Amino acid sequence: MKILAASDIHGDINLARRLAENAEKAKVDMVLLCGDLTLQETSTDGIIGPFKERGLKVGIIPGNHESPATSNFLIERYKLVNLHGYSYYLDRVGMFGCGSANIGLFQLSEEEIFNFLEKGHKYIEDKQKKIMITHVHPAGSLIEKFTMRFPGSLSVRKAIEEFQPDLALCGHIHEAEGIEEMIGKTKLINVGRQGKIIDI
């Protein structure tokens, strides 16, 4: 299975088009968008269209720049896969996630973040491969060293350690785009605005 994962598009239609073109060219099975599709709730037009026009399957979570209501609007309008507190599987790969962040306009408490991740994980825990998608990065990660303002999430860290997904994908910290590290058996990747094509 091959995915393209990206985050923090922030209403940039040209970026959305480039990502969709890259996904089509690479013949990915799934596109995962890790939040902050908009810039403070504006600019939803044209963000999802380029992916759907190419017949791509898309899973999303909200970031801290859009409410779950905005995310749900996009999910309903474009028939997307909702991974915010939910799960989805394709072949032998299970995906689960939690959007928003521990700061910002649309924040969740640490308890809520863990509950969303736990709820999604329980339906795919027996899958051969697991991907966890969040907007915010885990506490104590390399990504955290790239920012003084945005702390990592203790609950995202706890979920990685307890559920041991094969991949943990996030965004949020633009300066840490492309950073990869291992947390136990889990590969953590800040997929960033330019996105990353990953073979599972």
Q: What key phrases describe this protein's structure?
A:
single chain, 200 residues, alpha/beta, Purple Acid Phosphatase, chain A, domain 2, 6-stranded mixed β-sheet, 5-stranded mixed β-sheet, 5 helices
Residue runs with pLDDT of under 50 for 5 or more positions:
none
Average predicted local confidence, pLDDT: 94
Secondary-structure-derived class: alpha/beta
Radius of gyration: 15 Å
* CATH C-level class: Alpha Beta
Shape: globular
- Give me the CATH architecture, please: 4-Layer Sandwich
Overall tally of domains: 1
Span between N and C termini? 5 Å
State the order of secondary-structure elements, H for helix, E for strand. EHEHEHEEEHEHEEEE
Describe the structure.
It is a single chain. By secondary structure, the protein is an alpha/beta fold. The protein has one domain: Metallo-dependent phosphatases (Purple Acid Phosphatase, chain A, domain 2, 4-Layer Sandwich). It contains five helices and eleven strands; from the N terminus they run βαβαβαβββαβαββββ. Helix 4 runs parallel beside helix 5. The model has no long low-confidence stretch (mean pLDDT 94).
Summarize the structure.
The protein is of the alpha/beta class and 200 residues long. The chain has five helices and eleven strands; from the N terminus they run E-H-E-H-E-H-E-E-E-H-E-H-E-E-E-E. It has a single domain, classed as Purple Acid Phosphatase, chain A, domain 2 (4-Layer Sandwich).
